[in-house]
Design goal:
Blueprint lengths: L1 H12 L5 E6 L1 H10 L5 E7 L13 H4 L5 E3 L12 E2 H20 L6 E6 L7 H11 L6 E5 L11 E4 L8 E4 L39 E3 L13
């Protein structure tokens, strides 16, 4: 995968005056690891980067891949993303985590970076990501947009906290996928045809009617409703 990133970064560098790489989740890991080795990269745009997974069992994925094809199988009723989780995919994600964490543990990334993260991300460890930004991304032009309550003892002016509780839009908090879709998105947006109301909660019962509050653009779906036109 690293060779693929390097190849396309080289192609893009030949076409632009400034080379900025961007990635969501695992993609954030891949472009960050590449940027540590490529002086042509001028900056990074990272949306919910998967530096620090929320599960402490991810390290088992490479071994499990020899025995099981799937860690989880769900109904595939979402046209924009997958619901099921292949073991091979989890193993590759673990590889990206190991690589980017080694980079962050041994070096600073001195060029500008924009990171966005939700406090209520159920897939990742948001606080670890914020700490990494403050300690490993020292550029004064770097910015971290934190969706949720203002972190305690925050003294980094580069971090901006924005509320993720928007009751007028029936949003209780933001999830892992929150920055990917605009409110006017016809599928995931405020009046979209597909509602994603799970953000890691247990014991949800599928509903066929709208609920007052939901997690904005959750990572998985347990409830759906087709909004009337």
């Amino acid at each position: 995968m690293g060779k693929i990133i390097a190849h396309h970064a080289e192609l893009l560098a030949a076409e632009v005056d400034e080379l900025w790489l961007g990635g969501f989740s695992t993609g954030g890991n891949l472009v960050t690891s590449h940027a540590f080795t490529d002086d042509n990269v001028d900056g990074l745009l990272l949306f919910s980067p998967g530096f620090y997974p929320g599960s402490s069992y991810l390290f088992l994925a490479p071994a499990l891949a020899y025995f099981w094809d799937w860690l989880d199988i769900d109904d595939e009723d979402n046209i924009a993303t997958y619901q099921s989780l292949p073991t091979r995919g989890a193993s590759l994600y673990y590889r990206s985590v190991s690589t980017v964490q080694k980079n962050l543990d041994t070096a600073h990334f001195d060029k500008p970076v924009l990171i966005t993260m939700s406090q209520h991300d159920s897939v990742l460890d948001p606080n670890a990501t914020l700490t990494a930004f403050q300690n490993r991304f020292p550029n004064r032009q770097s910015r971290f947009v934190w969706y949720g309550d203002t972190p305690q003892n925050l003294d980094d002016p580069r971090v901006t906290a924005l509320t993720s509780h928007l009751p007028d839009r029936r949003i209780s908090n933001f999830s892992h996928m929150n920055v990917l879709f605009a409110p006017e998105n016809t599928y995931y947006g405020q009046a979209g045809s597909y509602l994603m109301l799970e953000n890691g909660q247990d014991g949800l019962t599928p509903l066929m009617t709208p609920t007052p509050f939901g997690s904005a653009h959750g990572a998985r779906t347990m409830r759906k409703n087709t909004t009337p036109a």
